[in-house]
Amino acid sequence: xxxxxxxxxxxxxxxxxxxxxxxxxxxxxxxxxxxxxxxxxxxxxxxxxxxxxxxxxxxxxxxxxxxxxxxxxxxxxxxxxxxxxxxxxxxxxxxxxxxxxxxxxxxxxxxxxxxxxxxxxxxxxxxxxxxxxxxxxxxxxxxxxxxxxxxxxxxxxxxxxxxxxxxxxxxxxxxxxxxxxxxxxxxxxxxxxxxxxxxxxxxxxxxxxxxxxxxxxxxxxxxxxxxxxxxxxxxxxxxxxxxxxxxxxxxxxxxxxxxxxxxxxxxxxxxxxxxxxxxxxxxxxxxxxxxxxxxxxxxxxxxxxxxxxxxxxxxxxxxxxxxxxxxxxxxxxxxxxxxxxxxxxxxxxxxxxxxxxxxxx
Length: 361
Hints:
By secondary structure, the protein is α+β, with helices and mostly antiparallel strands.
C-alpha cells in the first residue's frame, strides 16, 4: 500500500513539473528575446549572432525556474488531491502527512541535484560564451592585447601572479611565484621580469630567488639570468583567462580562486564567498519550495490551477526579494557569507515545517 502511494504521488508530480518548467522558462525568456530582437532591428546585428547569444544567455535564468516549478507542481498536485478528498482518505487510513511527504522530498532532492549539476556544467560555459558573443560580435569590441593582474595556483604548488599576460605571444611581465609550507608559512619566492612559453615549459628571465628559513627568516636573494621550471605546465591561456566572473566559474573553480586570493592576500573575497555559497543555496530552494507547496496545496483545498499559479508567484516574489536583501547584506559584510546566502532558505524551511506540523495535528 505504502509503495503504491509513493509511486502514485511521485508520478503525479512529473507532469505538472514539466509544465511549470517550460512555462517559467518561456516567461523568463521574454526579456532576453526582446533584447535580441531590438539588436537585430535597431543595430543591424546578424540574426544568427543574436540567436547564439540568446541560447547562451538563457541558462543563467533557467536555474531560477527549478525551484519555481517545484513550488507550482506541489501546489497543483496537493491542491487537486485535497479537493478530490484523496488526502482525507489517506489520513483516515492512518497515513499522516509526514509519510505523504516522503515521495515529495525524494522528488525535490532529485530536482535539487539536477539544478546543482546544471548550474555547474552548463551555466558557467554558457555565461562566458554569451559575454564573448556580446563583446566581440555584437559590440565589436577589440580583444585586449594583454590580460592584467592574473593570479593562479600552478601545478607545482606555487601561487603565480603576473602583471601582464600576452596570450597570443606566450609572454608574461612582472611574474611572481610564491611557495608555502603546509602550515601556511612562506618558504620560497621567485620573481622574474618576464616569462616566455616555448610550447612545453616556461622560461623565466631576470630572476631573483629568495628562500625563507625557519620562522620566516629571509635568506640572501639569488639572482639568475634564466630559470626553467618544468613542473609548471599551465599554458598562457590558463593565465590569461583568469578574468572570468563568478557566474562563469564552477563551484570548484570559484573555491580555488577564493583560496588563492586569501592565501596571497590579493584582494577581499567577501563577494566571491557569497557567490560561492549561492551556488549551493539556490539549488536547495527546490527542497524547501516542495514542502511549502505541498503544505499550501492542502490548506487551499478549493484552489484551482489559476489560484495555485497566483500563490506560487507571490511566494516566489517574496523568496527572491529576501534573497536579494540578504545577498546585498552579505556582500556588504553585514552578514557572514554563508548566512547571507542561506537566510531565505532557513526562513522558508522554518515556515514550511511549521505549516506541516500544524496540518498533521
